[in-house]
Specification:
The chain is of the alpha/beta class. Helix content is about 50%, strand content about 15%. Helix 13 links the parallel strand 6 and strand 7.
């Protein structure tokens, strides 16, 4: 028989994990309905005041506030029957376009867990869930997760680790973003470097349309273009190639990276952002690693396996990345000293 005290601890862990899952769902609702924005800076508010301010149904708001109180996001004053959103959660969940917004992570929960039945089938039948099966909800979540960082940190902080590249873009150069998604990298760089032109490649039709709309809305459409595949852009044309958060998703990584490499000029620079993961399981036994293994199982690994790929997954690690880039013909691989809680950054050369 298992030890009784260990059974109690395991039971407590199971309830805590289930509570965390419910918290994820409730935070998603709070982000989507604007409840965090309504409460941010509002001080102590009654449930009726929160509902009225958000134009929402009071009974739902009451239960959400009770749940958020139980989860520790909200403080309840029983004497006054009021609720106060903690400032730290307002900072992270009420500023959608900031570089510290964490709400996009919770937007990812419904499409990830919605894929769970198909992923479970794949355990016995093989294959996986293709990227397009996650639909608009998946694309929305990925954009919301990354948008603030790309807009506020890419040019202003991340690229400062490559001063020679920054100088080239300031003088006027061509840059290519491979796997560009909603196009936020190209749009952000176009805003920061008005002398340069930027192209993005994205095979997902819905994301490609989103990227084109975004460039037009941002007023940079004359210097930013998006294409459905690498064959549509010229070889040897780009001083900078960026690949953000997608090498680990690829079904044919060496082939794709080799094709992308050919788009660089001789001596051109590759900039890669990948999830902050180590090379061993022990390196990743922490909350960020646990989150990434879930992302991998329900999104990153499965979409690669769905196309007959290797399924490296979100926690691929720097050693495997270096090997892939070397096999694709890149040289001078190095990890950049950019601080981030969720990303590692690398550079290489053609």
């Amino acid at each position: 028989m298992p030890d009784r005290e260990k059974i109690k601890a395991a039971t407590a862990k199971i309830f805590q994990d289930m509570a965390s899952a419910m918290a994820v769902g409730m935070v998603y609702v709070g982000v989507r309905t604007g409840l965090f924005r309504v409460m941010a800076g509002g001080g102590a508010m009654s449930a009726g005041e929160v509902a009225a301010a958000g134009g929402l149904q009071q009974r739902y708001v009451e239960e959400w506030l009770n749940g958020m109180t139980a989860c520790g996001y909200v403080h309840y004053d029983a004497a006054r029957e009021t609720f106060t959103l903690a400032d730290e959660y307002a900072h992270l969940l009420a500023a959608d376009d900031s570089d510290h917004f964490a709400g996009g992570l919770f937007y990812m929960a419904p499409p990830l867990l919605g894929a769970a039945p198909k992923v479970a089938e794949a355990f016995t039948k093989g294959g996986g869930v293709r990227f397009d099966e996650f639909g608009e909800a998946g694309a929305d979540a990925l954009d919301l997760i990354n948008r603030g960082n790309y807009r506020h940190r890419f040019a202003q902080y991340w690229l400062k680790a490559l001063p020679e590249v920054t100088a080239q873009l300031e003088a006027g150069a061509h840059a290519l973003d491979f796997g560009c998604g909603a196009g936020q990298v190209s749009i952000a760089l176009a805003r920061a470097f008005p002398a340069s032109t930027f192209h993005g490649v994205e095979r997902d039709a819905a994301s490609l349309a989103r990227a084109r709309r975004g460039a037009a809305k941002a007023g940079v459409g004359r210097r930013v273009e998006f294409f459905p595949d690498l064959a549509a852009v010229s070889d040897g044309a780009y001083r900078l190639l960026t690949i953000c958060d997608c090498v680990h998703d690829l079904a044919r990584p060496v082939e794709a990276l080799g094709a992308a490499r050919r788009k660089l000029t001789e001596g051109g620079t590759l900039f890669v952002a990948e999830p902050k993961a180590g090379d061993s399981l022990a390196d990743n036994c922490n909350p960020v690693g646990a989150m990434f293994y879930g992302f991998s199982l329900f999104h990153c690994m499965t979409q690669s396996l769905a196309e007959g790929g290797p399924g490296f997954g979100t926690c691929m690690g720097p050693a495997r990345l270096e090997k892939l880039l070397s096999e694709a013909g890149f040289r001078d691989f190095r990890q950049l000293g950019i601080k981030s809680g969720v990303n590692n950054f690398y550079a290489a050369a053609r």
